[in-house]
Amino acid sequence: MANEEFNKGEHVAVFGGELDKETYIVDTVILCKVLIVGHSDLVVESSESYMTTRHIVPKSICRSLKLSSDVLASSFTLTPQIGDLVVSFFPGYKTVKTSEVSGILFKIVYRLGKPSCCVILCGTEMVTVEWGNLIVLHRD
Fold first, then answer.
1. C-alpha dist (Å) from residue 75 to 11, 64, 69
2. Rounded Cα distance, 44 and 11, in Å
């Protein structure tokens, strides 16, 4: 994508990684805002962690992030239904591994007019999980 055009004020993904004698791994992405568009380089602003920093980066390691406002306004997460194959994830802190439970959505428990938790059938075991941590894997 050497011919990609960039514009001041837009957001870009800036890729990075590791290089040694045997391998080259591209495994990091930092989201940045374009401040200046040069011939081959960009000046970008990164708000990683607590500080805002500015960097000169080659255009070749950047990808423009654009989304139509129509898509944003009309996109919603899929609401799980009884019988769906779902996974519930338990988000941990950076130092704690995220764990998952998957199975068939068996029951939804409502509190104060909205779903609060649910029961997933995992093999022969019934597991109660928080509603807000579900994602639908498959629906018939």
1. 20, 20, 10
2. 9
Q: What is the distance between the alpha carbons of residues 67 and 63, in angstroms, rounded to a whole number?
A: 13
Task: Note the pLDDT tens digit of each residue in 48-78.
Answer: 778 889 999 999 999 999 888 999 899 999 9
First to last CA, the chain: 38
Cβ atoms 117, 101 nearer than 8 A = no
Helices (H), 25-75: 69-73
For residues 31 and 61, the answer to whether their CB atoms sit within 8 Å is no
Nearest CA to 58 out of 45, 42, 44 is that of 42
Does residue 93 surpass a pLDDT of 80? no
> Residue 100 above 90 pLDDT?
no
Question: Contact 58/1 with Cβ under 8 angstroms?
Answer: no
Between CA 90 and CA 105 the distance in angstroms is: 16
